[in-house]
Structures are given as C-alpha cells and as structure tokens.
Amino acid sequence: MNLGLYLHVPFCQAICSYCNFNRGLLDEALKTRYVAALEQEIRRAPGGTADTIFFGGGTPSLLDPAEIARLIDACRETFDLAADAEITLETNPETATPERLAAFRDAGINRLSFGVQSFDDNELKRLGRIHSCARAVETIEAAKRTGFNSVSFDLMLWLPAQSQASWLRTIDRAVSLEPDHLSLYLLELYPNAPLKEDMARADWSMAPDDDAADMYLEGLRRLEAAGLEQYEISNVARPGHRSRHNLKYWQAGDWLGFGCGAHSTVGGRRWKNLSATADYVERITAGQSVAGDVESLSAQARIEEALFTGLRLSEGVDCARFLARFGVDPWERYGEDLAPFLQTSHVWRRAGRFGLTREGMLIANEVFQVFVR
Amino acid sequence: MDQRLIRNFSIIAHIDHGKSTLADRLLETTGALQAREMEAQVLDSMDLERERGITIKAHAVRLTYKADDGQTYMLNLIDTPGHVDFGYEVTRSLAACEGALLLVDASQGVEAQTLANAYLAVENNLEIIPVINKIDLPGAQPDEARRQVEEIIGLDADHAILASGKTGEGVHDILEAVVRRLPAPAGDPDAPLKALIFDSWYDAYRGVVILTRVIDGEMRVGQKIRLMAAGLDLQIDQLGVFTPKPVPVESLGVGEAGFMVANIKNVADAKVGDTITDAQRPALAAFPGFKELKPMVFAGLYPVENSQYQELREAMEKLRLNDAAFFFEPETSAALGFGFRCGFLGLLHMEIVQERLEREYNMDLVTTAPGVLYRVTTTDGMVQEIDSPSKLPDPGRIAKFEEPIIKATILTPVDHVGGILELCQEKRGVQKGMEYLKSDRVVITYGMPFNEVVLDFYDRLKTISRGYASLDYHVVGYQEADLVKLDILVNAEPVDALAMVVHKDSAYGKGRALAAKMRELIPRQMFEIAIQASIGSRVVARETVRAMRKNVLAKCYGGDISRKRKLLEKQKEGKKRMKRVGRVEIPQEAFLAVLKVGTES
C-alpha cells in the first residue's frame, strides 16, 4: 500500500479565532530550525513507497519555496515517490503572490488548497482571517494561470451571523471561479474558542441546526449542478480531482505524519508526534524520538474505524471488499443496528454496498455511534 | 443513679437554627468531648445529615454536669430528627423527655416547623425552655424573636435564654436551666419494666441497636424482655450509653436513656414507639402512642442499566435494614423494564433514599414522578389502596376515588399572604384558619390534597415567599375527589412510567404543560416524535419533537482518527444514560418532568 506523507507547518501570520489546530505565530528563526528538523525527521524514516505529500498547518505557504523544495527532495530521497505523486500545499491567499506561486510550482507542488472560507468580507473579518474576498479571487485566478494540476479551496458554513443567502452567494462565487475541488466545512466551535467570546460580545449567533442542514443541502445541489461531484461528506471535485491524500484517511490507508503534533497510522499502529514546536525541534536535533500516544489497534478497532471513516465517502462501503480485507461482512455484523437508519433513509443499501444518503451525512455521528462501544 | 438527678431533654428547632452547633457546645462544656476531639456537629453523623444540616436519625447522649448547686447531674440529650417527614419519630423522641429547649434563631424568628414541634412538645406535657440562639450575628433581633415566641407559640419568654452556639455564650445558663427548670423523671423504679423505643438502626456487627428510655423499672444485661407491639421475646445482650462514644453499662435504671442490643436481625422488629417490658413480669399496658409507620409517598425507582436490577435490589435491602419506613416491591414497567415501586414517609425521605442509593451504592437511577396512596372503591364494593397509576382499575369500574388530605400549617410574613393563598387555592386547598400575629406574621392552616403538595408545592411556596414561609403538614384522612389518570403517549404508545393521577379540573392544563416540558427534555432523534397527553381516549395536548437534521463533524484533521473515536464514544455514552421506549430515547430527567412543570408558570 502506498503511503501518504503529511508534513505539518505550525506557523501562522495571525491566529484565526475559531482555529484549534496545532499552530503559533510565525517566528522566522524558529521556522528555519523547524524546517531543518522536519527534514531530519523525514530522512530518519525507514522509507517505503509513497504517492502523496500534503503540506498542512498552520500556514505552510509561509515557507520559502526553497524550503518546500528541500522538504520534497528529502521525501523523494527517503521514499520511493510515485512519478505522478499528488503534492498539495495548503495556501493562505494572503501569502501567495504570482511569483511565489510559480516558485512553489517549480519546487514540485502540483496541487493547491486555499483557505478561502468565505467570499463575504464581513464573514471573513468575524473569523479573524487576514485576507479579503478580492484578494482570494485574485490569488485563485493567478494560481489557475500558473498551471497546477488541481486547485481546491475550503469554504465554511454555519458561520456566525451567516445567512442562507450569503452562504449561497459564496457558493455561486466559488462556482464561477471553476475550482477543481472544494471542501465545505461546518464551523465547529471548540470550548474556549476566542470566537465564542467575540460572538457573545457582538451578539452574533449561529443559524439553527435546521438552517445549517438546509445550507449544506442547497450548497451541494448547486455545486453538483456545476459539475462538482460530492465524493465525501465535506468534499466535492471535478472528475479526476479527488484528493488522493485525504482518501487515505477515509479508506483505512497508511500515512506518515512529520512535524510537531502530526499523526501517523501504519499497519494498524498509530502514534502522534509531540505538539510543542520548540520541544519537537530540540528532540529531533538531539536524535531523540518524538512519537507519543503510541497505540496498536486491535482487529476490532480497525474494523470499527474503517467503517466510520469509510462511510464518510459517497460511494459507501463495499461489503465483499471489506470482507476480503478485514474478514468481516460489515452488514452481517452491523446491519441490525443500521436498520433503523435504513428505515429513515439516512442509510442506503444496494448492489452489495451501503452508505450514507445526504441527509444521513448530516447526522453521520449518530450513525457512526453504531461502530463504537 | 438517683432519679432526682436525671434530666432528659431534647432540642426543638427549625433547620439551620443552630441545633447541632449548640448540641456540640453542650457536649464540650460538660466535658463529654475535649475541644480538640470536636468535629463540627458531632451528632450529625451521616454524611447527608452533615451536608444538609438536618438530623435524620435520633441520638441520645449522656452528659455529666456538675451544677452550681454542687450536685452532679446526669443529662440525657435526646436529639430529634428535624424534618416534617419524620414527624412520628419526633413525637417518640419527645415522649422520652421531660423537657425541651426551644431554639429560635435570633434573626430568623419562629418558623412553622418550630411551631409544629413546640405544639407536639406541649401535647407531650414537656416543660419548655425558650432559647434565642445566634445572638452573635449582626442581624440578631433577640427582642423580636422573644416576642414571636410569646405571640406565635404562646409561651412565656420572660426567662428565655440568650445564647450563641458559636461563641458559647449562654451555654452555662442553659445547663443550669435544664437542671433547675426541668422536672426529674417520675417513673416507678419498682414497677415492671416499661421502656420506650425511640429509635433503632442496623449495625453490621451488633445487629439492631435500639435507643430506649426507661419509663418504669430497670433494664439489666441478660434480662429476658418482650417487645410488646412486635410480640417478640428476647434477651438483652448489651446495654450502654453514648457519651457520645458508646460505653457499655450493666443496667439502665428508671428515667435513664441509652442503647440496647438484643440479637435483633431486622430493624422492622424494633419499631419506633414500641414498648420493652420484662418477659416474666410484663407491664400491664404499653407506653401509649404506638403507631405503625406507613409510607404515604410512592415512586418507581429503576436502574438505568437493566443489568443493575439485582444490585439495586441488594442495595435497597441493605437500606431497609436501617430504615423500617422505607418500603419497596418489584414492579415492571413496559417503558423502564424491571424496577421497584417504593414507598416513603414524604418527599425528603424519598430524596434521602434516592441519594443514598446513588452515592453509597453507586446506583444510576431513573425515578418516576412521586404520587400518594389513593383509595379506590370499585363497583363491586371492594376497597383497594393504589400506590401507582398503573394499578388503577378501568375508570368504568371505579365507584369512589379517594385521596389523602393533609393539614398544612404555613407561617409567613404578612407580605406574602396573597400569593400563598392563591397557591393554596390552586392546589385545591380549603382554608381552615388564618391568624394574624402582631409581629407581621400570619399562621395559615389549610386542608389540602397531599398529592398537590407532593408535586411542587414546597418549591413554589418558597419562591412566592422568597424563602420566608415555612411549612409543616400531616396527613389527617381521606376525601373523595374527582380524579382521573393522565397518560403521556410517545409516538402513540402510552408510557406507563409517565402516567399520573390528577384532578379533573386541572388535567387539561397539566397535560398541556407536561407535553410541552417533555418536548423540551427529549432530544431530537432520527425521526419525528409525537408527544401526546390523554385522559382516557381523549387527547388533550400534542407536541412534536422534530427529527434531527445535523450532527456531523466535518474535519478529520491530518488523520486524527482517535479524536473522532473519542467524540463518538462520548456521544454514545450520553445515550446510555437514556431509557429507550420503543424507538425513542428518553432522558432520565424526563420521567420527573412533571415536577418541573408549573414552577416557572
């Protein structure tokens, strides 16, 4: 099985008020040492064949194109990297000039994923984003001219004070830019998010659940009409542009994560690198291990996870293939528990497969609870 | 011990008026406990008692006091339970005494419970010494409290003692008053043994321990005795007194109080109020006033996890060892599975049992709405006592439906009278009396259906009076009423555990309020849920819980699947605490929804 390689870059120019990822403000000196450590960690890996690299963050587009090139080279020299490997860079529109985009392309990046979030400046401000809608449009157009295989961007729905109408304007605007791929994320407010305080202060509220569901459904309907096919709960793509890297998470694949706080799963073993950036650099430099939370998944846990990740995909789960791989016919084992969802049309079943309908995707956590104890 | 040097007394007080603190101070002053041994509120030994500041079980502590007259006295302090649910135990504790300290908080004044217990003490011919407590507090108004004692209770408060359990002020005066003003016990040392049981509990090592007061004659270790009401012959294994540490003695003489152990296995055999006599030379008549305790409030208690049923039964059996008034029998509910119908003396008693099961025995419980013991005469002339709505015969077979009536005594500042009268009317009360006292206080007495009080009366009384009104009640009899069974249907299925008995006139409103509350409490699920309230076949209210539309996590950040699993597990864990009725998951609190109805109206 081909590995996916995830490279974490924990630096940002500004901290968004809703974000709970492992990141901090940019510190140039630390960044330099961090990239060196990251390279070292990659070179230390045992190798194998790989076919995707994903630079995530944080804001990985804050790295210099030369740094990106160094890291991709380290991957190439350590792993047997497929010639057509998908190499994605998460990009903040504010950090990308046409020149830098070209330099990223020359460094080996062939897929860009922009953190656009919204095409409404007020919504962007409320999230604490540093870019404007105009800037995002400009950058996306520049990226398309630069010649990447795929251009994707993230949009968020269920934002504070976002209306159904403004969400659909964002969708329509996105369609007009002809992206290859889009991710739609429902805002998730973690406890103590600064955004929560902002919301309380400014009296912004989130639309009721029912409206969020309508926003999701109508957004997807418009995207599909424009040729962007849903293939996962939160992702749509033109044919041939599905994210190969992210598919590994949903198809019980193997991936190695490099950098602070990165997660890895290989052959049923799972671990997480330590999160603090400076500690990470120090330990890597000293030749020490950074892996923590090491876990060996039981056969049962692997089955459960393969189901609650696999059912995120529109194509659902193929019972025969699942049986061949995990030794269990999932419908035989869980069909009885899933029957009520079948009855309410949250789950479909046909041709030896089963999956979530779009209404089912909206309540995916309810269905997935069938697979945990 | 010379009978003339014995004094038996108790302390009458409202919750929080400082009874336990004062008792601690008496113990300390007489040297029963060194100051360093003192843990605040020694006499309240159960955790629950200490936390809530109430006394659940009675206590009897022997103090040795060298009075100013040079004589050494034996003082038995008999501490009584402090809540309305335990009214009968209070009468027995009082009956074991010749006098009582009537404790009144100098800033709070006289409360309904103090009043009720003071009357009980007067009825038992006790000599009463008023004590105005907490005079050290900034808000203390000792003169006002004294006036209230005179006006409300009708006692001469000229010689009331001003005291502070906290600082110890007045404690010496109290001890002197106990010696001088209270009579010595009047029993006959040569008469056949007659001793009153005023409390009993189960001890894992010694079996049942009885607290008793010798009225006539003498008790000796090894003596063959008889419990007169229980009809049980036994031999005394051990006698002792609490100082407050248990100290064995060879005998308890006339007028003395202490404990007895006699190889009794079951606390239900050692009934409070029963009389102990000599088996060979029995007394002619028992001490008067014995009553069987009868539970009046009933509720269903179910384990959340059906697999905990056996464990719950064992926990209840253990609890009953120590609580003869707690009743339970197996009950099956279509909605809740296997559980128990439980009987309690009152609401506090119910709460205490519930809390002890949850805390001491780690049980996870679903409790159904409490109800009272109804009496139904069927068309064939049979009379049944009904402790659960599910046991009601068909409406067509009911000839007569009777409910227990209480006499409620409410003491309130005059400002809140209007609201309280309104509440009592709403609760189908019939006014029996209203007396304005000089100190801007009013004593209101009502006859009221007990069922109405069991539901939410007390909370609302407290809300209306901003906490100032106090309530005391006791059941006085049964009365016919126009009662109906109100059913709650979830997705067209009646949920037996949610059924209740209500008065016809309020059934419609109650049904609507209950259905609305249920809609709030039942979370949205995969499908629409219809909630209906019905009386017989007539639906009086309908509410809908719409189907859930959204519960999804978008991000699966960088492959962090463990986090996702944890979230799913947490959500699932939350569901386990719900009860499944048909397809619908109902949270525990929904079964008590009826208690939450109306409090905000």
| Main structural class of chain A | alpha/beta
Percent in helix of chain A: 40-55%
Most extensive interface, residues per chain? A-B, 50 and 28 residues
Strand order of the largest sheet of chain B: 11-10-16-7-8-15-12-13
> What is the CA-based Rg of chain B, rounded?
27 Å
Beta-strand content estimate of chain B: 25-35%
How many domain units of chain A? 2
SSE diagram, text form:
The complex is a heterodimer of chains A (373) and B (601).
Chain A: E1 3-9, E2 11-12, E3 24-25, H1 28-44, E4 49-57, H2 65-78, E5 80-91, H3 98-107, E6 111-117, H4 121-127, H5 133-146, E7 150-157, H6 164-176, E8 181-186, H7 194-202, H8 209-225, E9 229-232, E10 235-237, H9 244-250, E11 254-258, E12 263-266, E13 269-273, H10 277-285, E14 291-296, H11 299-310, E15 317-318, H12 319-326, H13 330-343, E16 347-350, E17 353-356, H14 358-362, H15 364-368
Parallel strand pairs in A: 1-4, 1-11, 2-3, 4-5, 5-6, 6-7, 7-8
Antiparallel strand pairs in A: 8-10, 9-10, 12-13, 13-14, 15-17, 16-17
Chain B: E1 6-12, H1 19-29, H2 47-52, E2 59-66, E3 72-79, H3 87-95, E4 99-105, H4 112-123, E5 127-133, H5 142-153, E6 161-162, H6 171-181, E7 194-203, E8 207-216, E9 219-220, E10 224-227, E11 232-235, E12 238-242, E13 246-249, E14 251-252, E15 257-261, E16 275-278, E17 297-303, H7 309-321, E18 327-333, E19 337-344, H8 347-360, E20 365-367, E21 371-372, E22 374-378, E23 383-386, E24 398-413, H9 417-426, E25 430-437, E26 441-449, H10 450-464, E27 470-480, E28 483-490, E29 493-494, E30 500-503, H11 504-521, E31 529-535, E32 538-545, H12 561-576, E33 578-581, E34 584-587, H13 593-596
Parallel strand pairs in B: 1-3, 1-4, 4-5, 5-6
Antiparallel strand pairs in B: 2-3, 7-8, 7-16, 8-15, 9-14, 10-11, 10-16, 12-13, 12-15, 17-19, 17-20, 17-21, 18-19, 22-23, 22-24, 24-26, 24-27, 25-26, 28-29, 28-30, 28-31, 31-32, 33-34
